[in-house]
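Dear colleagues,

As part of the handover before I leave the project, I'm documenting each prediction I ran so the next person doesn't have to rerun anything. This entry is a single chain, and its sequence is reproduced below.
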Amino acid sequence: MGIPALLAVATLATMTPQQKAALLVVSGPRAARALGGVLVQRWDPGAPRPSGAVVYADQEGGAVRALRGLPPRRAAAEYTNAKEAYSAGVATAHALQRAGVDVDLAPVLDLSDGPLGDRQFRSPLFGIAFARGLAAGGIAACAKHFPGLGSLPVSTDDRPYVRGVLREQDLSPYRDAIEAGVPCVMVGHGVYRKLGPRRASLEAATYRLLRVLGFDGVAITDSLNVVSSADPRRWSVDAVRAGADLVLFTDGRSASEAVGALVPLARGGDLDAHVLRVLRFRALLRR
């Protein structure tokens, strides 16, 4: 067991159920104190952030940039080779570091036949190169949207329930990402019959598949606020029980409700494996 793992075990032993539950929740604006992570949705360096929280940003490129004045200015589909994508990743990392961001919720590894348009790289190898560039510049990448949106007819941002087909070619980029050492994977909301009737982010089979591929980093859900009728308390519990290490919300109220719902699981010891993975992830970010 390495030093980061030993430190994680030691930290876990000192944590209260409330602290364990809060560590697994990432919130948007108006985040409550002591949450494990905060999602920055616009560039406001003076905005209050929970003390010690990991800071996440959606900085894919092109139109999808939480911090509008920062790179990458080109959309993913505009890169024509891996060298360009790598350089963009390095530049993005340096800019995000100056802005106080720890994790970029990128790259998109959905294949180019998917529903996300210019958010998709021409080749997933360009996305891996972008992730390597982020790492070289000191920012953690979070590959998305596992297990791949390529077979979906529309984005899960556009409809609340979108069926797709689990395809081998959609998994291949994640094998490459895992081999490249990407420490975070975002699980999407597509529905795949082979994984179960619910969204992939809520199905245990999804997370088992991710681990079978060899991933030992943190798995974070896509925003659980994407469905307006979703109950943040039930969905956060269902996602964590399925295997998610982090649950993402875009508003603070939902995040606070999620923490309250996760506390009983923490009391029963059901969060400990997730907390350990998140603590190891946080140690990686602080190196």
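Residues 120 and 158 are 16 Å apart (CA to CA). The chain is about 40% helix and 15% strand.

All the best with the project,
I.
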